[in-house]
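Dear Dr. H.,

I hope your travels went smoothly. While you were away I took the liberty of generating a structure for the chain from your last submission, since the lab meeting agenda had it listed for discussion. I wanted you to have the full record in hand beforehand rather than looking at slides cold. The sequence, exactly as received, is reproduced here:
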Amino acid sequence: MPDDHSPLIRTDIPHSARIWNYWMGGKDYYEIDQIAGDAGVEVDPDIKTMAVQSRQFLIRAVRYLAGEKGIHQFLDIGTGLPTMQNTHEVAQSVVPEAKIVYVDNDPLVLTHARALLTSTSDEGVTTYIDSDFHNPEQIVADAKNVLNFNEPVGVMFMGVLGHAKTYDELLRIVHTVLDAVPSGSYLVMWDGTDDSQAYVTLCENYTGTGGAPYVPRPQAQIRAVFDGLEMVEPGFVSITQWQAGDTEVGDIRPISAYCAVARKP
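The corresponding predicted structure, in token form, is as follows:
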């Protein structure tokens, strides 16, 4: 019988985190997720590229902050299923004493987090918080038990803010967290945009299955999240284009997922 830390895993219903894991080339999915994932690719052939390239962007951004900007604390909000080159693995490969706090409220994600999100160095700290990003005040309070909010923090929202109930709520979530971290902290964010009808249709179809709605928003709205921050070159671009020369990412044509890394002044 499962205990409180072992949620019932449904293998007969597709799960968004497992589908994304499948698209990224991970191994934590079931046949039903592969079927749903393949159906999604038929609607939007770019979705698999988006999944893979979003991880490449994470790797480049974390490596840049840890290696070039001295950031050794990361708050990764909306973690998703662990797969290859997670935030703590990238950060601790550059800064062994790096501290990473993951945040998610999906029982499936948390089950995997307990098993897989462990420090890769003796000096580092890797932990997770069970929380919904709609409760940023609670996230900040819990993260302060691990991270030093008197020193810069890399705040990450990687492809999750489309789940915000409204645009105003999206801004409130991000600003609440950024207001809590000091000058010299960074926001790392990407999200899907509505300039691809195929991607919009894919998200609508997923919502129709009963999954948590994901709302692609205009590029201008995603760009506005960075207002008041100092953007790192090359600024606000497609995830395929952010410092793409640093890592082999294949095709660098723009896709409907935009990102930036920006410093809090």
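Two observations you may find useful: Residues 1-6 have pLDDT under 50 and may be disordered. The longest strand covers residues 186-192.

With kind regards,
E. W.
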